[in-house]
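Late entry, evening session. Most of the bench is empty. Finally got around to the prediction I had been postponing all week. Sequence below, unchanged from the version circulated by S.P.
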Amino acid sequence: MSQTINAYGKLLSKEDIDNKVHREFIGGMWEEVGQLQFNFLKENGLLPSHKLLDVGCGSLRGGVHYIKYLAPNNYYGLDINSSLIEAGNIEVETENLLDKNPTLLVNNKFEFFRFEQQFDFAIAQSVFTHLPINHILRCLNEINKVLKTGGVFFSTFFINLFRAI
């Protein structure tokens, strides 16, 4: 996948990250949306013992909530943007969550097998809205390979209707 599909491929500077620009870059409403994401998964059966794959985890707007809740070694996040993963690592450290040992990976091909895990839950919050259909299909194919039997994958998207004139 290309990092030039949309503005999401822009790398943030260390100064941007220090100034928490990453919180707005990924859509803002850091606390509100992060808490909503967490509440949604918990209401849909996420338990501390479950392994969670966060597709397009960004700078961990939802991730910090999941990591706090999940048992150590149960959070896995993947994103295309290395600067957002860097910001996410800083968020983990700031929130004193290093002992939860989250695993974060920069990857542009949805190579979830690299985690060498099977997952109970997976989520892609605001990922598919920004991708062409062939990338979405690749993600769905790859996620199917790493979900446990009975595992659940949630995703969000906006429907964009086009009418020719």
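Two things to note before I forget:
The chain has six helices and five strands.
The longest strand covers residues 147-155.
Will write this up properly tomorrow.
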